[in-house]
Amino acid sequence: MKLFDLHCDTLVECLRTGQSLWENSCQLDVSRGLRYSPWIQCFAVWISDEARGAEATGIFDRAFSLLQRELQSRPEMKLVTSGKDLQAVKPGQCGVLLTVESGAAAAGSLEQLRRLYRCGVRMMTLTWNGENEIGGGILSARPSGLTAFGKAAVAEMERLSMVIDLSHASERLFYSVAEASSGPLAASHSNARAVCGHPRNLTDEQFRLICDRGGIVGLNLAPEFLSSGKASGEDVLRHAEHFLSLGGESALAIGSDFDGTSLPEGICGIESMEELAEIFLRHNYPEALVMQIFFENAYKFFQFL
After folding, report:
1. Which class for 23: exposed (0-12), middle (13-18), buried (19 or more C-beta within 10 A)?
2. Which of 17, 69, 85, 286 matches a 20 to 30 Å C-alpha distance to 121?
């Protein structure tokens, strides 16, 4: 089976616990994920809402150093920074896309943003749940739109072809970014608010806007974003069905959030993605559509890099 996952927090979890990306006790490791071929995994550097300035850039630097060591020691891991790199990922390799979760990693500096790009970052979630130098997250007490620096950062991200990720963005920030930008937008790990009313989920209008802009949305496995009660793989299917009913056939993907969340019943980690795909197939989803969601849509989206 092919797999393209738009978001996991495993890199920072390995940094926190002193473990290896290759083999660990986390929800994802590379040795278990290589059952998928091709396999492209977005590894996020998560920055907490409390970290700012040198502390935020320091978190990124330490995570990046860990990733560099892993890449140097494991030929099975290949850093992806372009469409050509994507196409060059071979069977038995994990294509590694480096991302950032929270624009606090840019520390209010366009030069630092450019440095992130030079390090290989190709997608950045503008905020986590709170406020940062770019704008307001979804759980901000008084969520803002784009700040002056935020507008400059969005323009620079578009110039660099760094994907603007609006998961965690407040609605005010979401629409501020939509107005200030012209290219494709992403929500790397967000579900449907019409199915589960958590504020982290996307409204129908937001999803349609991302679709209309040629963007991508990854289904998140966090139980609280899937259901108000006990969650399972069937709930992932419910969110997929809703997004598909809105015309999302070419925009829908997977954004697991492994190692950034607990998991729904029946899903243990990266090894369970085949079982999740089987749930779709058992509900008479065409195999071609399942492969679009689990691989092809995200793969085509990132070809522009």
Report:
1. exposed
2. 17
